[in-house]
Amino acid sequence: MLxxxxxxxxxxxxxxxxxxxxxxxxLDGVIGDAEYFCAPFFNLCTExxxxxxxxxKDNNPALLAEAQSLMDQIEPTVHExxxxxxxxxxxxxxxxxxxMKKPVRVLRTFEPARVPLxxxxxxxxxxxxxxxxxxxxxxxxxxxxxxxxxxxxxxWDIENCVFNILVNQWGLxxxxxxxxxxxxxxxxxxxxxxxxVQCFRSRNLNPELQRLFTTIIALADELRSSLAAATGRAxxxxxxxxxxx
Length: 245
Description:
Helix content is 46%, strand content 16%. By secondary structure, the chain is an alpha+beta fold. β3 (77-81) and β4 form a beta hairpin.
């Protein structure tokens, strides 16, 4: 949780060493938004043997200008995908400043505006092209250009598929009690419940059942209905009441 007078980055720098220590084997790196493109975050990941990546914007004007100058001299790589073409420029070995312990790699992707046939209507706003910039300490041999592009886009999954769903369908923004400890416990319990349901759907349900429960909320409703309709005590209560072998 954020401490008084603390920002998101400060809390992240407190959190990450614990994540690396307890769960380091399940991750190779960490990606963040533009606020994380800084020496403390990149160096922390490097010290723990992890890659760092972040959105590159105007908060690093010198690096952005150097990368732009170098990219103007090379032809982009063109990838054809289901949604159309993506042009990418990928350059390694750029120096940010003296505080950054490792040089960084800068990736730019440009996706022209695309209008799906089903949305070609005068009522729809004109689509805009997407021009994205990222920086990372991961070399191309560890993270190829296309995978890096996908990783940058998937960063939005946290916002769209976690917090958005938790707010709109799981009551994250509802305050059940106003005591600070109760608020924190409700939020953490909600996170645990959501993660368990996600894991149950992705790891325990066969493809046929996954197609039946197309959304997490549908699966949660089924679990809740089954629990309410169950007769007798829950299996874990029955097991707890049995004498030891």
